[in-house]
Each structure stands twice: as structure tokens, then as C-alpha cells.
Give the backbone structure.
Amino acid sequence: MAHLLQVGAGSGGMPVLDMVCRDRRITRVTLIEPDVYKAHNVERHLFPLSDVGERKAVLAERWLRERRPDLDVRLLVCDLMDPARQAEIDQAASKADIGVCAADNEPAKFHWDALMRRHGKPWTLGEVLSGGIGGFVHWFTFGGPCYGCVAGHLQRTIVLDNAPPPDYSNPGGPVAETTIPASMASIHVVASLHALVTLALLTDPVGYAPGFTSLLFALQRAPEVFEEAFRPHRFRVPRAADCLICRPRASPSSVEELDVALDQALARLGNE
Ligand SMILES: [Zn+2]
């Protein structure tokens, strides 16, 4: 009996949702996804051309019900960061056992990280690199590094200096002009790894120790990024003592302080 909270049912999120929900331990799903299925999605998505024009959330619910009629599926057809829906999202997070983040933009990932830490819930994140040359799977637990710690650490490591920006293959996303869409094959490799890590973390949320906190899997040789194809790179990212987002505080943090921390984290990523 486990409740999965997932944000995102795009080309990367949908196969993760599908694979995780094949596991009978998952008995309830809450999916946050506001987008409409578009013609350009069909090339990389599980849904057919005839579904164009419908909400991805509704299509995902139908997909799951056709495979798991027993599954309790609930939809939040809204943006994760919609101020008017935060009470509902908080409520869902408080009742979740595990979270899956398949959001396609940095502000949403930071927002999700704050949500899951606020409720002390374990969660996972998958990121396909632009062009599908490889991808990341990260996992997070209460007391471990936050997304800001991980993003800051990886940004400073040599291997990623020349890597293209993460793009869970979402043409039309906020950085579409700077990214090359990944192939469905690349997306599904990363989605499968993401699903495996999620299910393992669900099995043992306290003791999970796969030998990495962030797994980078190279799928193609790419000059100045990956010397070899099909090679894993394991990172053990520690919690950063000076992290403005997750460092312990003497007093409750104000909204302004959190805004400053978020701005600084985004600036470090070069998104500002
Ligand atoms: Zn942190």
C-alpha cells in the first residue's frame, strides 16, 4: 500500500509513471500535470495521435486504469507552482509515500524539492540531457542533500562543464531554443533507470544505498562531455554545509529568505 505523488507526465514522466505503477505496492497515484497533448509530442510519447488535444493528465489516468483497474488515480490538473493550488498539493504531499519529479524546468524542480523536504518524503528525479546523449537519475531522502546541493555540486564538477542543459525532452519547454530533443529511445533508457531507483527507494527509504546519490549514464560519445557511450558515472553528492536552501536554521525561515536562496541557486545554474 503506497501512495505515489508525481509531477509531470510528459515524454519522460509518462513511462516512469507507467513502470512504477506496474508495481502492485503502488495503490494510489496523485499526478500533477497541466499540459494539453500536442501533435509535436507524439514522436516521443506513449499516447497516439488520436489523443492530441486532450489533457495529458486525463490520458495518463486512462492509461493507468486500463492496466491497473484497482489503482486509485487522482489528478491535479494544474501547474506545480500555481499559488491557488498549493494547499491541495501540500495535502497530497503530506499523504504520499514517495515522489517522482519529471518536471522540465529548474524553478519547478526547486519548488518540488522544497515541497518534499517540508513533508519529509523521499523522491527521485530523472533528467535527459539535450540531444539524448545521456541522462541523470537522482534520489533524495529526508536529511540528505537537497536539489540545490546536488545541482550546485554537479555544476562545479569537470564532467559537466560542457554538457548540454537537462531537457526531459520537452519541445515547447522553457529552454526549447537551446536544446535538441532527445529520441524516445534515449528518454526510455533514463526513464527505466529512474523507475528502478524509485522502486528500490520505495522498498527501503531509510537504508537505500546504491553507491550514488546521482547517477549519470552516458548514452553517446560526445566530444568534451562523454568519452564513451554506455558508461555510468556515479556521484555521491554530500549535503553542502553552506547550502542556503537546506541548511538547518535557528529560526523558521521567512518567505523572503527562501526567495533569496532560490534566486541564488538559480543564478548559480546560469538560468538568471
Ligand atoms: Zn541543500
Q: What stands out?
A: The chain has seven helices and eight strands. The longest helix spans residues 184-203. The longest strand covers residues 26-32.
